[in-house]
């Protein structure tokens, strides 16, 4: 039960983190005006930290999926 709740929380967090990323141009980001902004410099510290946090949350989310699958299989 605890893993299911954690999965729901991490799923919502992962969706919010992905939506916070700046559009790189092309795809769905253009549809909402993301393609109109141009970045002259490299990625800022905040963007790199957001990338790192997103990867960590994604790995935790994946691990929760695997644990829940194993619990359901052996239960």
From TrEMBL:
The species this protein was found in: Streptomyces polyrhachis
Membrane topology annotation: Multi-pass membrane protein
Protein name: Protein-export membrane protein SecG
Family, similarity comment: Belongs to the SecG family.
The keyword Cell membrane appears for this protein: yes
Alphabetical keyword list: Cell membrane, Membrane, Protein transport, Translocation, Transmembrane, Transmembrane helix, Transport
Domain of life per record: Bacteria
Tagged with keyword Cell cycle: no
Function: Involved in protein export. Participates in an early event of protein translocation.
Membrane-spanning parts: 53-72
Localization terms from the record: Cell membrane; Membrane
